[in-house]
């Protein structure tokens, strides 16, 4: 079935889930989550510019907040990619534009919080934003395929990963206001994930082998869309090292729950090709489970070394 035919068949599902989303989405406003009374001018308006001592966030919290925000900042690229994979017609267009408006709210709220509370260097943050948005995102799936099946598979996992990351970032900020804000954002991400997860479930019923092939390819090549941002490697190591988003969470809180929801390993509607893909996917997940243990052993040793250095 061609991508255009798949889109046409899935459009009623998209419309149904769009209506479901609109019935469940909560209205909220970024300004209600920002402690404006803590704000004061920077030097350009007669105040003082940012200094590291002004931040009450830990190094880990700063790394996580900046990574989450810069990921949200690349929204123009995500809008382009999803519009290309889907359609600018009817329910597809309504969903993509609504999703974009809701995601934009996340970046507004996080940036306002960080600037008002002086949690991070606003100049460095703006430089990083310019780099991210200027280079954009072309293939977050890592598969080289921009068709609808790869798109809905990727955003299902990515939205859930983002929910986990936002939620855990809130917990390490040491500020109940940041936790409240990121909990609110995580709730949005969860609703977005459900929309895409339901679309992908319908695609599995429609074209089982092709949908599974897309899912397996996305899982094998998965990377977060912020992989090209400044300091991503350093920040992602900190984030993983301190349990905000690590390999175990990726496997046990993102990949496996969604695959269970789709009933991937108990379905009986795959052809021989689909069954081969499923076997390969199972082997890949088994390897990830081994990698989880190896990563955690290395992390525990690194944390022990850090603790020993602090004691000295």
Automatic annotation (TrEMBL):
Q: Please report which protein family the annotation says this sequence is part of.
A: Belongs to the fatty acid desaturase type 2 family.
What is the protein name stated in its UniProt record?
Acyl-ACP desaturase
Give the signal peptide, or none.
none
Q: Name the cofactor(s) required for activity, per the record.
A: Fe(2+)
Recorded hits in Pfam families, A to Z, give: FA_desaturase_2
Subunit structure, briefly?
A: Homodimer.
Q: Which UniProt keywords apply?
A: Fatty acid biosynthesis, Fatty acid metabolism, Iron, Lipid biosynthesis, Lipid metabolism, Metal-binding, Oxidoreductase
* Superkingdom classification of source: Bacteria
UniProt KW Oxidoreductase keyword: yes
Entry keyword Secreted: no
């Amino acid at each position: 079935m061609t991508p255009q035919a798949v889109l046409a068949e899935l459009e009623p599902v998209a419309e149904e889930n769009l209506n479901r989303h609109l019935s469940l989405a909560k209205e909220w406003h970024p300004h209600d989550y920002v402690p404006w009374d803590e704000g004061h001018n920077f030097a350009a308006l007669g105040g003082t510019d940012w200094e590291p001592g002004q931040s009450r966030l830990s190094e880990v919290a700063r790394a996580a907040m900046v990574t989450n925000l810069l990921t949200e900042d690349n929204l123009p690229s995500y809008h382009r990619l999803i519009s290309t994979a889907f359609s600018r017609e009817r329910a597809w267009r309504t969903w993509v534009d609504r999703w974009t408006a809701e995601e934009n709210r996340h970046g507004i709220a996080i940036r306002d919080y960080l600037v008002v509370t002086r949690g991070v260097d606003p100049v460095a943050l703006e430089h990083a934003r310019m780099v991210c948005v200027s280079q954009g995102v072309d293939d977050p799936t890592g598969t080289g395929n921009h068709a609808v099946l790869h798109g809905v598979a990727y955003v299902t996992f990515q939205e859930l990963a983002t929910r986990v990351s936002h939620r855990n970032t809130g917990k390490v900020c040491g500020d109940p206001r940041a936790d409240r804000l990121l909990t609110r954002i995580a709730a949005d991400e969860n609703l977005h994930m459900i929309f895409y997860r339901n679309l992908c479930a319908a695609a599995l019923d429609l074209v089982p082998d092709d949908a599974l092939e897309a899912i397996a390819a996305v899982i094998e090549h998965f990377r977060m869309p912020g992989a090209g941002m400044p300091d991503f490697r350093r920040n992602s190591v900190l984030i993983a090292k301190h349990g905000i988003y690590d390999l175990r969470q990726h496997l046990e809180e993102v990949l496996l729950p969604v695959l269970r929801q789709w009933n991937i390993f108990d379905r009986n509607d795959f052809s021989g090709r689909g069954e081969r893909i499923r076997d390969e996917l199972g082997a890949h997940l088994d390897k990830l489970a081994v990698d989880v243990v190896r990563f955690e052993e290395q992390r525990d040793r690194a944390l022990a070394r850090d603790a020993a250095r602090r004691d000295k």
